Request: fold
Amino acid sequence: MRGGEKKAEVVMGVALILLVGWTMAVPSELPYFPGAYFDSTAKEYLQQRALRTWPSPVDQLEAWRSDGLDEARKVALLLGGAAFHDPVLLPAYSDALTSDSPRLRQAAVYGYRDLIADTLPDVSAGVPAEEAARVAGEIVALRRTLRRHGLIDVWLESALVAEGARGSWRGVLFERPVPACLSAVATLSQPGDLPAIVAAYGRAQELQTRIQLMQIAESMALQRFLVMPSGGHGVWTSAVYTDALARFEAWIATTCHVDDVDAVLSAGMLNLGLKVDAPLSRRACGAWTRVLEKGEPSWWATAAKQLYRCGAPYVELEVLRATGEPNRNRRKILLAWLHDQHG
Reply:
């Protein structure tokens, strides 16, 4: 057997083992869906385990199509798989929406909205057939759009259109308020999305839209544009945000390599005295721990995403509410895990 074939066989074997283990047990959180306790607590436990131990979304979809899952495990996939935010799973949600099972339709609508980082719906009263059909149609249009654009691009364009911008966009748009669109962008964004954020900023008209896009860019670029008033107890006046936007625009004007993610992140890490040539490689895991420890609160979310790729638990940190107490507490939990692992 050639080396490449042997490696492929090993990878497939590992995926199969994970898949079998995943399908054997029904998650204990399922009885709480739908409901307030699932939204506030059980969903996080389910999705943390999914991100840590489940096979890839591609393998999850293969399991869905194999007809080897009973209803409970299908519900688990629709709810837990959403944590990956991977559109490859969209066919599973489409299938479930045509099911005769009310519970599968509930999980499909809820899980789909969660997968795309949308505002979560209340499905406790069930999902009427006409609503299931509407969501199924949206998924069809979204899958068609994703052949040309990324999910981040859909949310950015939806935000710009919601505030009245015009463009040559071809594809589905989400009819959501601007804050909901930008919250999804903040959740889904990775450093490689920085050029799209900067481009959207250039088209945005509303001040609040521009401020939030600047905050998202600040997180991904590891820069400090929004500066708290002196003393830490100052008033957040309009001048504070005006100054921040001016700093952001000056940074855009003087940064020749916005498309060069490694260069942007390397420059940002220099703010902490870190010299890192390949910030997105596994060699940079220690540097990202340092960013989480010593960096600005606006950088924590990006650090947490990169540390998940390094093997840390996935902890979703806020970008747009970075200084809030919930965000600080989640960061402490992640830091405690990192320190426990590395001493």
